[in-house]
Amino acid sequence: MNTAKTILLMVTLTLMLIFIGGFIGGKSGMTMALLMAFGMNFIMYWFSDKIVLKMYGARQVSEVDAPELHAMVRRLAQRAGLPMPKLYIMDQDQPNAFATGRNPEHGAVAVTTGIMRILSREELEGVLAHELAHIKHRDILVGTVAATIAGAISYLAQMAQWSMIFGGRSSDEEGGGNPIAALVMMIVGPIAAMMVQMAISRSREYGADAGGAEISGNPMYLAGALRKLQMASERIPMDANPATSHMFIVNPLSGVGLLKLFSTHPPMEERIARLEAMRRA
131, 174, 205, 270: which is the annotated catalytic residue? Predict the structure, then answer.
């Protein structure tokens, strides 16, 4: 169900990009939107892992540097049928972790120094299994493409806004339409794209929770870790880029009230309840 939902949402996001491009600029706008999406996805496919790791100052650690971490990940990767990913550590007090890499052969797992301090061995194993499930399901690629298309929609809306400010299109230009409808599209389009992107992210988190529980062999490892991570993330701030918040196992940006509606992560209570249900099954 999670996979089918993700495919449906990805198709919706792509159609939104094409529709908004066509609405704003006719056939030429539609073509520009597609070219923009393909170009941005190409760049992000090859370089997104390097960009995000550098953004958070993650340093690669060898087996000599972190023997216990390497041994744990190697065992879990073998259980999941995955190649051994590269391991990185971020000097961040907030306990958190994320996976990146365009495919399992180029996978990487990054953990903060904070997460290694507060979690037990079993809980850390649950978190690492969750991240390996993301790699196995190729969620990093899906999330990157979704974020890129949503960004392209926002960029198109900004272009249309400046076009209207400085005179818009000529009357004989192909496409066009009601300027009020165009204004509404410029406002609603990026918000709708962001919400679809976040729905994709939440769906993939549920899938990685379930996959991680299977890899670790005990869903309560991850459930216990999530409880600790949720409490710690609310107390310990992290200087995180909102564009990459969906990559972390818990949202590094604290949000309350209406902000939770725009969260890239599903409710923590629901995630834990699903893991507990797996134990009872």
Answer: 131
